[in-house]
Amino acid sequence: xxxxxxxxxxxxxxxxxxxxxxxxxxxxxxxxxxxxxxxxxxxxxxxxxxxxxxxxxxxxxxxxxxxxxxxxxxxxxxxxxxxxxxxxxxxxxxxxxxxxxxxxxxxxxxxxxxxxxxxxxxxxxxxxxxxxxxxxxxxxxxxxxxxxxxxxxxxxxxxxxxxxxxxxxxxxxxxxxxxxxxxxxxxxxxxxxxxxxxxxxxxxxxxxxxxxxxxxxxxxxxxxxxxxxxxxxxxxxxxxxxxxxxxxxxxxxxxxxxxxxxxxxxxxxxxxxxxxxxxxxxxxxxxxxxxxxxxxxxxxxxxxxxxxxxxxxxxxxxxxxxxxxxxxxxxxxxxxx
Length: 337
What we know:
Blueprint: E1 9-12, H1 18-21, H2 24-33, E2 41-42, H3 51-56, E3 59-62, H4 71-76, E4 82-85, H5 96-100, E5 104-107, H6 109-128, H7 131-141, E6 158-163, H8 167-176, E7 181-186, H9 192-198, E8 201-202, H10 205-211, E9 214-217, H11 231-236, E10 242-245, H12 254-263, E11 267-270, E12 290-292, H13 304-320
Parallel strand pairs: 1-2, 1-3, 3-4, 4-5, 6-7, 6-9, 7-8, 9-10, 10-11, 11-12
């Protein structure tokens, strides 16, 4: 394909992310597949300076910080035929008119699921060893705990309950499979046969909560899942168990969770909270049974290149005229993050 036949593309995102998403090797691949200006990163579709670029663009390469692609943007971009998103969900990014016009949409959400699943696996393994609690005790007492302190510690046969067979949930189930865990799953859109194929036993949510040593949240944030772990369900978690949340803080009643954690009855590994970040006076910052991280489970640092590489791979498929590997179907957004 000659250069003149390559599609015109433009970056639309916060430019701070561009170097990590598309380091030199990925940028070189991009510029071989599309006509684009690597120095031009659109932040505002209404900026008169980008009107000409938008009018000629066939592909938008979007990322974090991209403004909503609505009907006005579509009117200003009559040649647009694809939106390739170098981040996660496009649910709130694209107006329904994007699909109405037949524009191809792709997302790197699958690539972004990988580090979240890896972080969660680490949290589960460390929680099973009570690494967080024993670290706090070690820091305070400066001596090894007596052997009797370890009677509940260990990952052999540990009961892990996964809430949500999302992309992250499914990848986590893959990572858990070779380990000696007893894994259960709650997902209203999965049947027992599919759950077994994923390596888990399907359970109702209340039963999963009652029977898990570690509960890990991977459901999307939708009206149906809002506060799905309310005060009653949180009370079902057995004493000494751990809640891991790398999904969304809105899935859990924050006041009820705080009350449970303040008692010390259960522990938690929280990469997401509501609100985010927590107020400075939140007791969760100080509780020894809570391990808080600042929303780091998703792609960060050198992991961002994986998202950029996904977009480049999708652009290669687009220019070759073959179906994309990570195309987004509008109907799937109803039950996804």
